[in-house]
Amino acid sequence: MPTLVVFGATGRTGRRLVTAALAVGHSVRAFVREPSQWTALLGVTVVKGDVLDAAAVRGALHMADGALSALGGGTTNEPGNSRSEGLQNIVAAMTELGVQRIVALGGGGVLDASQGTGLRSEQPHYPEIFRHVTREHRRAWEALRDSALDWTYACPPDIPDREATGAFRVLGNVMPEVPKALANGDLAHFMVHEWTDRQFSRCRVGICR
After folding, report:
1. Where exactly are the structural domains of the chain?
2. Which residues pair with 109 in a beta bridge?
3. Sheet with 27-32, side-by-side order of all strands
4. Span 191-203, mean pLDDT?
5. What does the pLDDT read at residue 78?
6. pLDDT band at residue 185, thresholds of 50, 70 and 90?
7. Residue of 208, 116, 113 lying closest to 154 (CA atoms)
8. Closest among 207, 134, 202 to 174, alpha carbons compared
9. Is the pLDDT of residue 30 over 80?
């Protein structure tokens, strides 16, 4: 039974990641800042810590088999640094400990543009409101890209808090055409199964309805 550390476990998508991981038989360590925000679940070990604390991240990953990350925080205009610096700490700890596999949540702006060159966020029509948070997603992706880890970076559009529908599309490094908002239940299902399936190893993934 693999043991996975879920970072961002108290968020809407993080909670669904925990549930989806348990459903396929994984043992889960939920990495949380405030254990009081967590409802006990069979098969889940709660680990208290801040993702910006490198030592706490390393402790959570000790003797684990892999990680799932749904780090977020802040707002669209002021996203903070927990996504990028947190992922940098996770990458460093996994590298040191020899833990190889991670599936992390990013944003659609770091995918390649379907036409032209560069990333979607580098195109003239990319919405200005998303540029700040996309920079955070990009720094997180670069931490994965520049490592030797076996990573997958899931990049959806909007992700409302809804149960899985089973209806979603995926493409490596680009967003499927005419993307629609993706239920975070579907996102969690994809991320958990991708951790095992490795269909998109060392790859960004455009995922949407």
Report:
1. 3-208
2. none
3. 44-48, 27-32, 3-7, 66-69, 101-105, 150-155, 203-208, 169-172
4. 98
5. 79
6. very high
7. 208
8. 207
9. yes
